[in-house]
Amino acid sequence: MTEDYRVAVAVIHGMGSQGDKPQDPNAISFSADLYRGLRARMGAERFDRLVGWREIFWADVLQSRQQQYMDDALAGKARWMQTRDFVMHRLADAAAYRWEKGESAHVYRDIHGRVAAALAHLETVTGPRAPLIVLAHSLGGHILSNYIWDMQKGHATAPTPFQRLETMAGLVTFGCNVPIFTFAYAHEDVEAIRRPGNLIPPDRHLTPWWRNYNDRDDPLGMPLRHSGKGYQALHDAGELRDTWISVGGALTAWNPLSHNAYWADANLQRPVAAMIAEAMRIGPVEERVT
């Protein structure tokens, strides 16, 4: 019987009102339903012993300023406030998160700083040799893709192999809206990130390493394969898989509210549990692969 080993899991949220203050680095908030579901599905003792789980929380970087504008300019004055709230705390997140020059353009830098801090903390929890799985909801998938891109292109670095994602074994995106950020480029010019985790031996690679799950009723959840040449190449190489799933209950499964229903749904929890179990069989990652 193959022995199971420690795995690091980092979870990042997407657009929306998650909170206007930084949270404790050990807190489990937005991912609580997924955490509890996986822990029950995989066995509490096994999960607690082998899975290091930490959240990447970034909502407060934008939310306090967005809410201040709502309170000052719109409250008691404008109509359709629920719709405006959706625009302000969701679409505005996507609009504000972009790389720009200058010290005043801090959002991209600050959000990536939250990713870096969470990974550094997670390394102290699991140790530097644990394979890493990243679970990314909605805009969080775009953020992680950019973070990996910056590492791979030399635009950013980190002090350890773990924090440079050199032990990263897999990525799960759900409610993924990466495609909407690709349309500024011709299909042939769209590149994708390469497989991270260069310290994981090829015979222990997860295949595919990028698994993308979306509900057909979720207007913000989109397949990746057709986004551009780079994503098609990942798919053709067996490194990327798009899968339609159904999530939500009687009130959410058939409409756009399904976008927030992935966390508690068995149709996402089952494949995520399977991927984590696969990663448990990789074993401690050596610092160098020869």
Molecular structure report:
There is one protein chain. This protein has helices spanning 32-42, 44-50, 60-74, 81-96, 107-126, 139-152, 229-236, 266-280; strands at residues 7-12, 51-56, 132-137, 168-174, 210-215, 240-245. It contains eight helices and six strands. It has one domain: 3-Layer(aba) Sandwich (Rossmann fold), CATH 3.40.50. Helix 7 (229-236) links the parallel strand 5 (210-215) and strand 6 (240-245). It is 37% helix and 13% strand. By secondary structure, the protein is α/β, with parallel strands linked by helices. Helix 1 (32-42) crosses helix 2. It has a six-stranded parallel β-sheet with strand order 2-1-3-4-5-6, with helices on both faces. The mean pLDDT is 91. InterPro entries: AB_hydrolase_fold (IPR029058). This is Lecithin:cholesterol acyltransferase.
Key terms:
Rossmann fold; 6 strands; globular
Structural class: alpha/beta
Through-space gap between termini = 27 Å
* The CATH architecture: 3-Layer(aba) Sandwich
- Classify the fold: give the CATH topology: Rossmann fold
Helix percentage range: 25-40%
H/E element sequence: EHHEHHHEHEEHEH
Strand residues, percent: 5-15%
Residue runs with pLDDT of under 50 for 5 or more positions: none
| Number of β-strand runs | 6
**Major beta sheet, strand line-up:** 2-1-3-4-5-6
Classified in CATH, the superfamily is Alpha/Beta hydrolase fold, catalytic domain
Largest sheet: 6 strands, parallel
CATH C-level label = Alpha Beta
Per DSSP, the total helix count is 8
Q: pLDDT average, as an integer?
A: 91
Number of domains: 1
**Which word captures the global form?**
globular
Task: Output the radius of gyration.
Answer: 19 Å
